[in-house]
Amino acid sequence: MNRLLAHFERLGAIVLSPVDALRSVLSGAGGGAGDVLPWLILVTAVVEPIRVGHAFLVARVDLGSGASMLVQSFMGQWLPLGVVAIACAAFGVWARRSGRHPAGGDRAADAALLAGLPFVYLACAGALLDALGLDLRFLPHHRLAGPPSVLLLRLLVAFTWSGVLWFLLLRELWRGPTEASVHLSEAEVGEDLA
Q1: Separation of alpha carbons 89 and 106, rounded Å
Q2: Which of 5, 126, 178, 194 could share a disulfide with 141, CB 3.0–4.6 Å?
Q3: What's the CA gap between 139 and 113, in Å, rounded?
Q4: CB-based contact 31:114 (threshold 8 Å)
Q5: pLDDT tens, position by position, 70-100
Q6: How far is CA 105 from each of CA 24, 65, 72, 110, rounded to the nearest angstrom?
Q7: Is-contact 85 113, C-beta < 8 A?
């Protein structure tokens, strides 16, 4: 039960104290892709239930085609998060090699996925409101399409919150670990040992 509570605490920390959550992941104290990926799979099924259901039905007849449809649905929804995670991983590798930050590419990618959670939360809220009969087209539970002005509004709504967190992550990697983040990681390691 404590592990489950810690899991939800890490997922909520990106909203309540985002800088501390990012520093925690960069210091290796936990969180990251292992916390985020199961929810991305679940949210894909919630946001695109018809496509996912169709893919499962096709998979009953042709496993390869069904799996391909599932992967396309997943990648179509979360490709921007993957691109940013890869970019942050590359920046993390550079920061480690240049001696700026000890975290490396894997921790930077984990932190980037965690920073993408606001996008996931907005997609969930949009799907929930859509199910209740209130379809807000600018939320990221729909695929990005439309005229340029609508597309710009949807991109701003979908990625502003996560974009700010990604900027904070890159700033943290650029500046290196601060005294506060070192104390934070020592305190969390002490809690894990207790």
Answers
A1: 6
A2: 126
A3: 19
A4: yes
A5: 888 777 777 777 788 888 888 888 888 888 7
A6: 15, 33, 26, 9
A7: yes
